[in-house]
UniProtKB/TrEMBL annotation:
<feature type="signal peptide">
    <location>
        <begin position="1"/>
        <end position="23"/>
    </location>
</feature>
<keyword id="KW-0732">Signal</keyword>
<protein>
    <submittedName>
        <fullName>Uncharacterized protein</fullName>
    </submittedName>
</protein>
Length: 63
């Protein structure tokens, strides 16, 4: 029973930490030269749009 409690606790902890940005912790308390958002691209992607008839994609929208 104790092993099941430990396994469940680990799974719950992983559930809340998966996808968390590395910049959310206090370890990055230094002055950045330019403001930025961790994990966010500069130009938002247009997921639902398609390239049709040779229309160009937005530059730098996909990594």
């Amino acid at each position: 029973a104790m092993l099941m409690v430990v396994a469940l606790t680990i799974r719950i902890a992983l559930l809340f930490t998966i996808g968390k940005s590395k910049c959310d912790d206090d370890a990055s308390n230094f002055n950045h030269a330019e403001p930025y958002d961790c994990g966010c691209q500069a130009i938002s992607s247009q997921i639902r749009s398609r390239i049709v008839n040779g229309e160009e994609a937005i530059p730098n929208s996909w990594p």
